[in-house]
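How a chain folds remains the central question behind the approach discussed here. The record that follows shows the chain in one-letter code together with its fold in token form:
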Amino acid sequence: MPTNFTVVPVKDNTRKADESNEEEDVDDNNVLKEEDEGTTGDGVPKENSPFINNTDNDKGNSYDGTNMALFEEEMDSNPMVSSLLNKLANYTNLTQGAQEHEEADDDEGPKKKTIKSPQMGTFMGVYLPCLQNILGVILFLRLTWIVGTAGILESLAIVGLCCSCTMLTAISMSAIATNGVVPAGGSYYMISRSLGPEFGGAVGLCFYLGTTFAGSMYILGTIEILLTYIVPKAAIFVAERKEDEVDALLNNMRVYGTCCLALMAVVVFVGVKYVNKLALVFLACVILSILAIYAGVIKTIFEPPDFPVCMLGNRTLQNHNFDKCRKTDIIDNLTVTTQLWKLFCDGTGLNATCNKYFDDNNVTMVQGIPGLTSGVISENMWSKYGPLGMLVENKLTSNGRHDPSQDIYLPYVVNDITTFFTLLVGIYFPSVTGIMAGSNRSGDLRDAQKSIPIGTILAIATTSFIYVTCVVLFGACIEGVLLRDKFGDSVKGNLVIGTLSWPSPWVIVIGSFFSCCGAGLQSLTGAPRLLQAIARDGIVPFLQVFGHGKANGEPTWALLLTAGICEIGILIASLDAVAPILSMFFLMCYLFVNLACAVQTLLRTPNWRPRFKYYHWALSFLGMSLCLALMFISSWYYAIIAMAIAGCIYKYIEYRGAEKEWGDGIRGLSLNAARYALIRLEEAPPHTKNWRPQLLVLLNLDSDQGVKHPRLLSFTTQLKAGKGLTIVGNVIEGTYLTKEAEAKKAEQNIKSSMSAERTKGFCHVVVSSNLRDGFSHLIQSAGLGGMKHNSVLMAWPGTWKQSNDPQSWRNFIETIRETTAAHQALLVAKNVDSFPTNQDRLGEGTIDVWWVVHDGGMLMLLPFLLRQHKVWRKCKMRIFTVAQMDDNSIQMKKDLQMFLYHLRLDAEVEVVEMHDNDISAFTYEKTLMMEQRSQMLKQMQLSRTEREREIQSITDESRSSIRRKNQGGAENTNLSRQSSTAEDTQEDEAQLIHDRNTASHATINDKADTGPERVHMTWTKDKLFTERNRNRECNTNVAVRDLFNMKPEWESLNQSNVRRMHTAIKLNEVVVNKSQGAHLVLLNMPGPPRNRGGDENYMEFLEVLLEGLNRALLVRGGGREVITIYS
């Protein structure tokens, strides 16, 4: 839909006086200048700017006007529309290789000439180059043989398949080429920018190999024309026997082909301008040759040319060593034998012994070119495939019964290769390649987006018409035996298609010779530049050296590699063997052009707006399917090899290549697939069988934004093994406006650490006003849709006691509460810096699981996942559980073993029985120290005056409590003892506590060694209440009262804290006793107190629980089952 613009001039009153004297500083050369960081290395602008020409040159220009003062601060990054339109209007796209020439001339400075804008139109810029590249060696050297072997109908099928493939590819290519500017690089640029660097590099290299082998094919065609039709006597290797002819021909092709390649490479190295100047000459040769063919066909209607074919019976004879197609001749009334007689008989006499088939059959002559109206078309309608060495015969019947295999070394025309339909498809397909010639020259076109589609499609339509008409006309004008005579042996070594042409066969011979020479030179010119473009893109590291060249940008090293690969094709030496190879590479290139168009069309990306409208995704898929089918039809093993080469290059670029963001369609396809999968995932929560830990890893950074605990990432890698979701998060305190640079640096450092530790996942850095809110935001909002984390992994705050800021451990506890509220599992790693790296290999050892309360199976699942990684693979799994007095330990052990059997887990089961013991003095003393420390922490938050007043009140209250206890417990105690120094009293009490503690530990160890082992699989609700009541009853024990009498401060302790400390100490003693040598210990993590006033005590409980363990992992379930016995 056309859009109308109205330009309204706006006057600037402040500059009226100066406008007449000032001139705008417009540098025409700036249009073509590009900063180094603005290019990708091959002269192609990076896609980080929204337009082709970057605006970096304007950044230094200040804006002085007042009309747009509201936007003056944005002028550096957002130029005015008038400036932008001026740049776009003067945009010039340099041709391939011209950018390097311009860079070589930069030193001239002001002397540098302004580059002329391209002026080539559709006809000269696209149509004729495509015509020249499509019509070539196969048309002149093999099309007649294909028609004679496959017949007219199957030949039309071959032509129709191949031309349909290229036409559909041209439609897709036109859509891509008109979707924006296509710089130098042609098909490689289109595929790489549409499908990404991996596909682009793989297909670009395949296209390079195809172009290189095409050079080999053209050189072999040139040498075949030279040695077979122009100067046969120039052959170095001459066969004395017919069976050696094939080897001699191949050796001659190798020698002359290598010399021709060296000569062409020197020409290309010296200067491409000579090749370009000769392009019109080569094109004229092609056009004249085509016209000569049509003129010859028309002439056959009135006067067919005289090219007789000598037949012996129904067999075709090679007409090299005889001049008369007769057995005998009459000279002076005497019957004498001819030269033909000598070829089949052992003497020249009439009584000589001759070949039996020669004796039984007569020699006849048939017209090789009977003419368009002769009706020979009906005989050439059907195929005549055959094996290697099959004699070329016509429809005539022969006398006698003879074995043809005995006569293949006689001067008959025979098949030099085994022929079948699929072979002919592979040989013919190179004759329809060359459709990319127009897109490769997009920089020379006046209007590339108009010229490329029209010129390419017209060229394909023209060449398709030429091929179809040639197939029909060849079949209608030429005798079948001559069509199947590949090298024209039956017509004295003339080029078969030349016998049809007018005015002379030499028109076709000379025209095809120069056409093949020109095509070979263009292949050697284009292939190195394509390789140079790929190398300069930097996506294939080992090709970097080929991005360099001469001072003017000529790709010297790429030319050497191209010549080397081309030599491989020449050493193959057979045109029929090389043609299917390059067919594979071109077909793969065309396949991905169609795929690129189909993907972009189906995704409907906003940037997909081709000016060429006559395309459809179904046509692209049809073209892609046809390309794939032709690959396997031509040669299934070559197809597999070509796909394997492309696959290896793809994986190499994916693994080692530089990361490029080109806005390619594969990325869009991935986004669409991800969106679809996320919508499907959100429909329902995952089943227990599909549950795996999707981790949110909370990292701490140091002051330089470096990762404090990289081993946490190592552990993540070992736990996940690249499966599932991993989000590595961090919180920076402050506001985003002031901390943006720090956030980006932190994100970059985290990504570097993730790469070093091989952690596959995503990084998420949040800037928040405080750490607590930041971690809360991460826990709530990290992930997307169904791809959200279900587990949080963090490191134990090892320095929480030494920290002056209580906010550190409060944030830790709040994180625990957040994860519990969000129904997410929590993993806390203690001493995480001692965890193994990914390069470590732990030897024989154990992973110990202490299953105290049921957590949904997390404790069972985590060791299994860890043991899948090579670091933990040799470790064995042990499961400990705690049994109480009223549990049946034997039965529970059997139940647990059966449960593990159904879970398909290999683990040793051990039982630990914890008896109801009296609370030791050590426990009370530990609790007292904990509560005193809590009081001190609270005091540190008060003001100095309030702190002193509070300390005095606590001291007075403690003294009065001690005084009351002493008066009530023993009235007649001597008061002089109470007046002893406080230091002596404290030393005695400390010694008493130490003795009792030692005795208590010894008792527990004895009981642990001698008592029966029991297994407790889960805590039920009733059992929990029973345990609490039992603990309360124990508090009223007489022995406890004795302890209170010993140290009265203990009676004022919170009994709930005493019980919890008792549990932590006892459980820690058991765990340390059993698992101190384990590689990793997994424990149930107790929940934080509901009353926030006891948070600091909770940290002390966990510290006591983990004391003495080297590597420990506290695990808190998310409130759902994560493991099941069902399949």
Observations:
- Residues 121-303+415-634 form a domain with the Amino acid/polyamine transporter I fold (CATH 1.20.1740.10).
- The radius of gyration is 45 Å.
- The longest strand covers residues 875-883.
